Structure formats: C-alpha cells, structure tokens
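Chain particulars:
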Amino acid sequence: MTKTEQLPLAVHLPDDETFDSFYSPDNGAIVSQLKAFIETDDISNHGFYLFGQQSVGKSHLLHASSSYASRLGKSSLCISLSEISHLSVEVLTGLEQVDVICLDDLHLIAANEAWQQGIFDLYNRVIENNKKIILAGNNAANSLSITLPDLVSRIGWGYTEQVKPLPDEQKIQAIQQRARSRGIDMQDETVKFLLNRLSRDMKSLLESLDLLDKASIRAQRKITIPFIKEVLF
C-alpha cells in the first residue's frame, strides 16, 4: 500500500482481507466488477460506490481492492472516514495522485458540510488525474442524508452495487473458509454454536474467530465447543 505524505496516519491493511478470502456467493459478481474496474484504464468511469447494511463485507471489499491494486503495481490507499473526518479536509490534499483510493463509511459525513465538499472536490481531482476512487456507505447514495446534491450526483456517475448480507448457512461456510486459511478445521456444529451464542454479524463472528485462534495457539488446543465456552463465555 502506498500512502501520500499529506496523510499523517499509519494505515495498515488486514492481511486476510483479500478477494480470495471474500466468501459470498451472492456477491461474487461484485468482486469481478471491482477487479475489472481496478485493472482497466477506462477513462469513462472513475468511481465505484458500494453500499449495504453494517457487517456485510464492504470494508473487506475495500481492503481487498487496495491490496489487489498494489499487486498490479498501482499505488493505493484504503481508509475509513471514521479515522480522518475529525481532521481538517486538508488531509485529502494530494490523494488524487494515488491510483486507487478506497474510502469507507461515507455515511459518517452526512452532517459535515466541509467534508462533503472535500470529498466532492477530491472526486473531481480524481477524474482530472485519471485515477480511481471506490467509496462505501450504509445506504444508496440518495439515502445517505448527504446535503450536498453535487456529491450525491457525482457518486451516481460511477458504478453502484449493493453488497447483500450472507444467510446463516453461508456464514458457516465463510467462517470455515477463513478458519482453514489459518490452518484451523472447524466442524459445522462448532460454527453453529458460535452463531447461536454470539451476534450474527460477520464482523463480530470473525473477531471471535481471531480471539479463539490466538487462544488455541497459546493453549495448544483445538477449537471445540468446550474450548469456546472457556474462552468466550
């Protein structure tokens, strides 16, 4: 990942949030579209907007997009507006020099006119410099409560895709796939126990998997239902 000198933050991508680790059969077409968007030098479209409810995988897709761009030798940046919207919009200065910019949590600037104008101006500079920007928010652009009509319109110029939530059966498979990538074999009944006892959103489930993975390494034990009870409850 490449960051600009104007951004005074240490931004790191999760190693396990790539396109390969994104398990979501219903959203498979979005992965293909994002890859094509990043790969091509099509000057007719510079923007891509992802929206969907919390914990459906939007952040994962942005991290994956930035990682994929880097693999292709392009400069990239991925950051959430939750990390920078308390700063001056001047922090966006120079980002139009980055090949692929990924900005998460667009809905957080709905009440901030200065940041809405800042994102709009950045979008225009991205177009002028023939770069790419990928944005994500919790609703369709016209339902974000953004008060700057020009920004809503600009978002609508690019590709727009809704990220659909996983049904429970696919959540089981997604967790098992992520576990296998760490060398962990989790049985169906073990994952179902997690689903029944914890919040069903994928972010919480994967955070729990991370805790269990670390605990199992320390204890040199397999992740079983009794072990889960010891660690999480």
Confidence is low (pLDDT under 50) at residues 1-6.
